[in-house]
Design goal:
Layout: E1 9-10, E2 13-21, E3 25-32, E4 38-44, H1 46-49, H2 52-66, E5 76-77, E6 87-90, E7 94-96, H3 97-104, H4 109-128, E8 131-132, E9 141-144, E10 149-151, E11 158-159, H5 182-185, H6 192-208, H7 218-227, H8 242-251, H9 263-271, H10 281-286, H11 293-303
Antiparallel strand pairs: 1-2, 2-3, 3-4, 4-6, 5-6, 7-9, 8-11, 9-10
Helix pairs in contact: 4-6, 4-9, 6-8
Length: 310
């Protein structure tokens, strides 16, 4: 068996061109020969198809997608028959949020908040249906030509209506480091509040062009995410309203119990920012962390060793 290529017909789908390729799969623009519609066909690379865990995740992504029906979530279809492992999605024309940010640096406040409202609406629907995305990031958000969004890629989504997928040696820390919630960094599987954190990071980035915890050393950035505090976004964008800053910082609280407790609550805040009550979050996050007792002792000894009486 060889890799699937353009020009081939896969069951009822004629593969026309490659639209994306990752380390795990290739996505083709294809034509459904049964009804003539254009679709996207996602085919895993051959070397992964024999991997039991990958195979199960791929099937789970298909199962999750086929039971979801929301305008801001990519639709996954059911082929008449399948001769191998692949999934079929609606074909989307537009650009990824990551591409928009790479080109523009940051978005206007109105556009960024408008996109975040749509994403929060999609998350509210997911969570009502017991699904947590767990890998929400600009690479997994498509902006269509009419400005509408589609949340895509449910490869590591958690569906609590299905049995838990486990396998010996499988790391529980899944996601993309810049957008992972602190609990994911700690190896926990995450829940709906994990998606809320990720959306908070995305909103921070759309407003400022930066991410809350940035470091060339990914491990240092992940440690900061678990133990540190983000720079208030108004430090990067002086025109940001205190209410939008409050929403962002509320969404990316380190402790899940301190965040918005539902995507619907976050969506409501984004829709009515003028009604958001301000707290001291921005002031607390803006404080420089104090020196630990150990570091204070080291510095004191360096200045005057005779004062080391502890």
């Amino acid at each position: 068996m060889s890799e699937i290529e353009c020009g081939q017909t896969l069951d009822q789908y004629e593969l026309l061109e490659v639209v994306a390729r990752s380390g795990m799969a290739t996505i083709f623009r294809a034509r459904d020969t049964g009804n003539g519609r254009t679709v996207a066909v996602k085919v895993p690379h051959l070397l992964h198809q024999s991997d039991i865990v990958f195979h199960q995740r791929f099937l789970r992504e298909e199962q999750i997608g086929q039971r979801l029906n929301h305008p801001a979530i990519v639709k996954i279809m059911s082929p008449k028959q399948k001769s191998c492992l692949y999934l079929v999605e609606e074909y989307l024309e537009g650009e990824l949020l990551s591409q928009r940010l790479q080109r523009d640096g940051r978005l206007s406040i109105d556009i960024g908040v408008g996109l975040a409202v749509q994403i929060a609406d999609a998350l509210a629907y997911l969570h009502e249906h017991q699904v947590a995305h767990r890998d929400l990031k600009p690479d997994n958000i498509m902006i269509l030509k009419d400005g509408k969004v589609k949340v895509i890629d449910f490869g590591i989504a958690l569906d609590t209506t299905q049995r838990k997928l486990t396998w010996s040696g499988l790391s529980q820390a899944m996601g993309t480091p810049d957008y992972m919630a602190p609990e994911q960094v700690k190896g926990r599987r995450g829940d709906a509040r994990t998606d809320i954190y990720s959306l908070g990071v995305i909103l921070y980035e759309m407003m400022t062009g930066k991410i809350p915890f940035s470091n060339e050393n990914v491990y240092a950035a992940m440690r900061a995410k678990v133990h540190g505090s983000p720079i208030p976004p108004s430090r990067h964008l002086s025109g940001l309203s205190p209410q939008i800053e409050e929403i962002i910082l509320h969404a990316i609280e380190r402790d899940p119990s301190d965040r918005f407790q539902s995507a619907a609550e976050l969506r409501e805040a984004l829709t009515r920012p003028g009604e958001v009550a301000l707290t001291d979050r921005a002031a607390r996050k803006g404080q420089k962390p104090g020196l630990s007792r150990w570091w204070r002792r080291v510095i004191r000894m360096m200045i005057d060793p005779s004062k080391n009486k502890e």
